[in-house]
């Protein structure tokens, strides 16, 4: 089951996704993002070492390192 969070401000549900993005130097970085629908790369849980926050102005969920 995909990891989801409901915004306290807007009430919308967002799903956590990840994507591995190659950088110009050849290094590969993992990007985490929330989307209103499920796509490729949907995650089942929070990644280790991260915690969930919500932007107080927009209500969008954010991941921050613990």
| Helix/strand structural class | mainly beta
Order of helices and strands: EEEEE
Number of strands: 5
- Gyration radius, rounded: 13 Å
Largest sheet: 3 strands, antiparallel
Q: State the low-pLDDT regions, or none.
A: none
Fraction in beta strands: over 45%
CA(first)-CA(last) distance: 24 Å
Instruction: Tell me the domain tally.
Output: 1
- Helix % is under 10%
- What form results from the Cα inertia axes? globular
Query: What is the overall pLDDT average?
Result: 95
SS field, number of helical segments: 0
Order of the strands making up the biggest sheet: 1-2-3
Describe, in plain words, how this protein is organized in 3D.
- The protein is mostly beta strands and 66 residues long.
- The protein has one domain.
- The protein is 0% helix and 47% strand.
- The chain has no helices and 5 strands.
- It has strands at 4-6, 13-22, 28-35, 50-54, 61-65.
- Strands 1-2-3 form a 3-stranded antiparallel sheet, with no helix packed on it. It has a two-stranded antiparallel sheet with strand order 4-5.
- It is globular, with a radius of gyration of 13 Å.
- The mean pLDDT is 95.
């Amino acid at each position: 089951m995909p990891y989801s969070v409901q915004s306290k401000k807007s009430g919308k549900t967002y799903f956590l996704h990840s994507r591995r993005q190659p950088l110009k130097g050849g290094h590969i970085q993992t990007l985490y993002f929330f989307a209103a629908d499920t796509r490729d790369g949907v995650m089942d849980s929070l990644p280790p070492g991260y915690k969930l926050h919500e932007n107080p102005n927009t209500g969008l969920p954010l991941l921050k390192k613990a």
